[in-house]
Specification:
Number of helices: 5
Structural class: alpha/beta
CATH class: Alpha Beta
Distance between the termini: 16 Å
CATH architecture: 3-Layer(aba) Sandwich
Helix content: 40-55%
Radius of gyration: 14 Å
Oligomer: single chain
Largest sheet: 5 strands, parallel
Number of domains: 1
């Protein structure tokens, strides 16, 4: 059985690099697929566009997704994921810099599994990303 995949939906290159660095420091060797906007995330998850023909059975173990994305925001991505039976139970962690209460409430209303505000401090960010990776890959059980 292949190692579980992490789908990182992140348009900020610095946050992407920090997340990948945190996983490397924690020795999380799982494949991380990075997509840079909401449309690309949906294309990857549903095997469309440049990802047409991708084996959909090789679904990510978790999606770590920013909310403020180009082309299609994270809330709309989450709405579409929860509306489709193939992705309804896919774990989605909103990993965002947004401190807006409405983003938090709407993310949970739409079915996110966790909402994590990105820490501003470098060390805190790395620690948070490490904890997310360990929890969702090692401790969490999926149906």
């Amino acid at each position: 059985m292949p190692e579980p995949i992490i789908l990182l939906v992140e348009d900020n290159a610095d946050d992407e690099a920090l997340t990948l660095h945190a996983f490397q420091q924690q020795r999380i060797g799982n494949k991380v697929v990075v997509v840079r906007d909401g449309v690309e995330a949906l294309d990857y998850l549903f095997g469309r566009g440049q990802y047409a023909g991708r084996d959909l059975a090789d679904a990510p173990a978790v999606v770590l997704m920013d909310l403020k994305l180009p082309r299609l925001d994270g809330l709309e991505v989450l709405r579409q994921l929860r509306a489709d039976a193939r992705t309804r139970s896919l774990p989605v962690v909103v990993l965002t810099s947004s401190d807006e209460q409405r983003d938090l409430v709407e993310s949970y209303r739409l079915g996110c599994n966790s909402y994590v505000r990105k820490p501003v401090d470098f060390d805190d960010f790395v620690h948070a990303a490490q904890q997310l990776g360990l929890y969702w890959l090692l401790l969490n059980r999926r149906p």
